[in-house]
Amino acid sequence: MPAPSDRQYTQSHEWIKIDAPGSATVGLSDFAVKAIKDIVFLELPAKGAKLQALKPFGVIESVKAVFDLFAPANGVVAEANTAMQEDFETLSKDPYGKGWLLKLSLSADPLPPLMDSVAYDKFCAESHH
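Below the sequence we write its predicted structure tokens.
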């Protein structure tokens, strides 16, 4: 599934979509969800947690490995999609829609350098993970 063009991507496969000035939705890309495969555990931060761009905010675990989730921007968690901590099927099937992970209240800081969908799809095609 090509990466949607209405969001930006990190090299660690998180996406961010600006919903309105100062607010955004964060999730994990289809590429990452497919690479992780058998998800068995997801840990998300609580509402009110402060996130730092490109620093870990949570953990996703498969049968074989554990991966940190990295924040694509500075901000405060407005909402965590805690349903995804039980519903791995939706996370796997709809990572750009119902499988979102966080709603963020963004800080005034500019976003770190992120990839657009074209650059991200190219990055995934060239990646050997």
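The CA atoms of residues 87 and 99 lie 9 Å apart.
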